[in-house]
Every structure is written in C-alpha cells, then in structure tokens.
Amino acid sequence: MALATYLVARLVDDCLPEKLLQATAREERSTAARGWLANIALPTPVRTALTKLAEATSHSIDDIEPMLASVITTTSSYLDAAAHTELDRLARSFAK
C-alpha cells in the first residue's frame, strides 16, 4: 500500500509547476503506473483512488488536488501519520 501510494505521489510531485514534466513523459509514466497498480494486491477503493490520481497526472493537472484529497481519505486507515503528513504537504502545494 505504501509503495503504491509513494509511486503515485512521485507522479504528482512531477506535476508541480517548478518540476512539470512534458505531457508525453507524464502520459508514459501514468500509463506504466496504472499498469503496475492493476497487477498488485490493493483494496478496491485504494486502487481506484490511486489509479484516478495517476491518470490525472497525465492530462488534467487541475484535477490533481481533488484526486489527491481522495487518496488521502481512502488511505487514512492504511498509512501511518508520517505518510499522511507527506501527502498533506504535497496536497498543499496544489492548493489554489
């Protein structure tokens, strides 16, 4: 669970304005991440939230903030406080 969340958080981090990767690179990375997520054991709600967030990194950066909020909520009972602190910090980077 933590590794899957970390993987998608890295995709999100590379969508920050100061790090923004080119669209083709984001699409390739998103596709690879979604394939990996489909092949590991995760609770369905977590897989769905992570997959949607990974997909958002490929095309719709405006959708990242609400999708990341969904991941934070969905993983709340699975990840420790330190992991959630990092996710919250990442989410604040996208707050408008």
Main sheet overview? none
Percent helix range: over 70%
Order of helix and strand elements from N to C terminus: HHHHH
Query: How much of the polypeptide forms β-strand, as a percent range?
Result: under 5%
What's the N-to-C terminus distance?
28 Å
Q: Low-confidence parts, pLDDT < 50 over ≥5 residues?
A: none
Number of helices: 5
Total number of distinct structural domains:
1
Structural class: mainly alpha
Name some characteristics of this structure:
96 residues, mainly alpha
Protein described:
The chain is built from five helices and no strands. The protein has 96 residues and is an all-alpha fold. The chain has one domain. It is globular. The N and C termini lie far apart (28 Å).
What is shown here, in short?
The chain has 96 residues and is mainly α. The chain has helices at 2-13, 23-38, 44-59, 64-74, 81-94.
Describe the secondary structure blueprint for this structure:
Layout: H1 2-13, H2 23-38, H3 44-59, H4 64-74, H5 81-94
Helix pairs in contact: 1-2, 1-3, 2-3, 3-4, 4-5
